[in-house]
Amino acid sequence: MSAMIGHAAIEQALDWPALIAQLRDWYVSGGVEAPDRQVLNIRQPDGSDASLLIMPAWVPGQSIGVKVVTFLPANAGKGRPTINAGYLLFDGETGQMKAALDGDTLTARRTAAASALAASHLARADARRLLVVGTGQLAVSVAEAHSAVRTYDSVEVWGRSRDKAAAIAADLAARGLPATLAEDLETACRAADVISTVTASTRPIIRGDWLKPGSHLDLIGAFKGDMRESDDTAIAQADLFVDLRAGATLAGDLSQPLEAGVIAPDHVLADLTELCRGDHPGRTDATARTVFKSAGMALQDLAAADLAAHHIISG
Questions:
Q1: How far is C-alpha 200 from the geometric centre of its chain's CA atoms?
Q2: Angle 150-185-175 (CA atoms, 0-180°, nearest 5)?
Q3: CATH superfamily of 3-106+299-313
Q4: Fold classified for 123-296
Q5: What pLDDT digit, counting tens, does each position of 170-209 carry?
Q6: Contact 185, 160 (CB under 8 A)
Q7: Which of 88, 162, 192, 274 has its CA 20 to 30 A from that of 64?
Q8: What angle do CA 118, 122, 124 make, to 5 degrees?
Q9: Strands, E, within the chain: which ranges?
């Protein structure tokens, strides 16, 4: 009998230090096979576009998993989540289904943990000011995960909706983080040591001119070619890192400057596997502006699902 693992159980099983360590271990050890994710376009009755993403991965003889994600941008204007997901985990030896997991919570946890893992290599050790840009499902998780790898004196939240940003900041403060509302995006960016963006923006909202020397920019939200959170300057001036080259370079933050000739493919210095294995030292200059672009990886989903199932099913 397979288990149904919901939101609360996943959050409890995937505490930040354990999940970040799990991802680091899986990146170092290798062995995960993951075909390119499929992104299928779904034309909606009102003429808008939605997306269906299919992300499989397996470790032969150990685990097999697949995540199915829907992305409906029009939901944002209707007060509904834009992203919904489910995850199926199978025994890699017998092929039997072990668990069905809440894919939304799994995605939020693993995405935030991967960015925090990258920041542990790329953000300055003395980083003290964190800015979260966006008020969607990932905002709280990102703030908590980054706070698990650096000690922040200030966590600011900015969003197009001031009320939503204030609510996120209040939630984080209730969780024990030094969180406040950021009233002005440019002012907050200029002061921040680490900026994490979790929006569905289709045009740049972060300007490179706003990023101080030694800052770290964590770009999460824009995962398709027509989406973008940063401008050309932010990318061109940066020491640039990605979760996976094949996926990240298809997202607009990188695909658009690549197509325009603003950067070349070798501008990407390393991926998360190379950082975790020590093939690249990460930040080597205290004044460098680093950027980490993530588009999501099936490895992260399988690693998180495997950890959650181990804790919950094995007890």
A1: 12
A2: 40
A3: ornithine cyclodeaminase, domain 1 (3.30.1780.10)
A4: Rossmann fold (3.40.50)
A5: 999 999 999 999 999 999 999 999 999 999 899 999 999 9
A6: no
A7: 274
A8: 130
A9: 3-5, 38-43, 49-59, 63-71, 83-91, 97-102, 129-133, 154-158, 179-181, 194-197, 216-219, 239-242, 268-271, 290-293
How far is it, in rounded angstroms, from Cα 208 to Cα 271?
Answer: 21
Q: What is the pTM of this model?
A: 0.93
Is the Cβ–Cβ distance between 82 and 73 less than 8 Å? Answer: yes
Q: What distance in Å separates the CA atoms of residue 272 and residue 246, rounded to the nearest whole number?
A: 12
Beta carbons of 219 and 253 less than 8 angstroms apart: yes
> 104: Cβ–Cβ under 8 A, 6 or more apart, which residues?
7, 81, 83, 84, 85, 137
Encoded tokens for 5: 């693992």
